[in-house]
Task: inverse folding
């Protein structure tokens, strides 16, 4: 794809490139009113035909029907000019969730608050009939006060889904794939729940949930199918048994044993944040048992 800095597309003058991805490049842009935006530019190629690119635009615009309160990156306009397709979006300049994960100054409580916010947003996305399909830290942009915003909803296209064209797009990121996704099965809201679990585990512990490291893609996919998860409390101080129970339920191999909805998961994560009761039994620590004896109702 040629460098398009200085060109005008969709009425927006493009500035410097601020990012690149599997589908195209993202530019800083300025609209006719002087508002600074992020503009994703994608080019039609034999590997990304017009039908698929139109579906990507459709998926991005689908987020406009998500209920208020959901923190998703706003898409202001989308269209085509020649062989180029564009998305004009809200600009975020505080980086992605990847930056938060590696920042030792961010406490477990702050990380948990981010998890709750993301869980609530994903619950609203699912309520609108939208599946994300590629949840990972790079697809979470950070706003002011560390507010997380979901981005890149190309799996939300009903046209691509109905025509069987989703296979033309990247099918998730290996580390964050659900076991059923690894097997090439239909992506569902439950797949999102598992991927959120991997993301949440990494955010809260700073580590991968799997027992071993993978040197190749095949090894990574094998680890996911194997399903052995390292207890989060052994990875990071400050992860109590409630948080551990929630993460392990998000990461259940068996779809039927996972949370049935992100709404349920968000309630339990919020309870963890506020020190309340979660919806499932868990193994209490000695300290928690003592609190139950001497301060009943406080744990």
Result:
């Amino acid at each position: 794809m040629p460098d398009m800095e200085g060109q005008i597309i969709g009425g927006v003058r493009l500035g410097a490139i601020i990012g690149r991805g599997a589908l195209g490049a993202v530019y800083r842009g300025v609209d006719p009113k002087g508002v600074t935006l992020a503009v994703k530019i994608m080019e039609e190629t034999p590997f990304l035909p017009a039908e698929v690119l139109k579906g990507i635009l459709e998926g991005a615009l689908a987020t406009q029907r998500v209920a208020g309160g959901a923190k998703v990156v706003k898409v202001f306009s989308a269209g085509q000019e020649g062989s180029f397709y564009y998305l004009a979006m809200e600009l975020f300049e505080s980086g992605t969730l990847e930056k938060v994960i590696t920042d030792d100054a961010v406490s477990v409580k702050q990380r948990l608050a981010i998890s709750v916010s993301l869980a609530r947003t994903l619950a609203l996305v699912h309520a609108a009939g939208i599946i994300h399909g590629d949840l990972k830290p790079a697809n979470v942009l950070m706003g002011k006060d560390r507010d997380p915003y979901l981005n890149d909803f190309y799996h939300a296209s009903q046209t691509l889904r109905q025509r069987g064209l989703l296979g033309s797009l990247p099918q998730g990121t290996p580390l964050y794939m659900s076991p059923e996704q690894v097997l090439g099965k239909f992506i569902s809201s439950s797949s999102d729940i598992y991927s959120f679990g991997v993301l949440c585990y990494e955010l809260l512990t700073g580590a991968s949930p799997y027992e071993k490291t993978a040197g190749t893609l095949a090894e990574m996919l094998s680890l996911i199918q194997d399903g052995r998860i390292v207890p989060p409390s052994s990875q990071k101080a400050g992860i109590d048994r409630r948080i551990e129970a929630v993460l392990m339920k998000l990461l259940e191999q068996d779809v039927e044993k996972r949370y049935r909805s992100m709404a349920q998961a968000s309630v339990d994560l919020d309870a963890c944040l506020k020190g309340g009761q979660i919806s499932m039994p868990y193994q209490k620590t000695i300290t928690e048992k003592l609190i139950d004896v001497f301060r009943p109702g406080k744990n």
Observations:
- The first helix runs from residue 50 to 62.
- The mean pLDDT is 88.
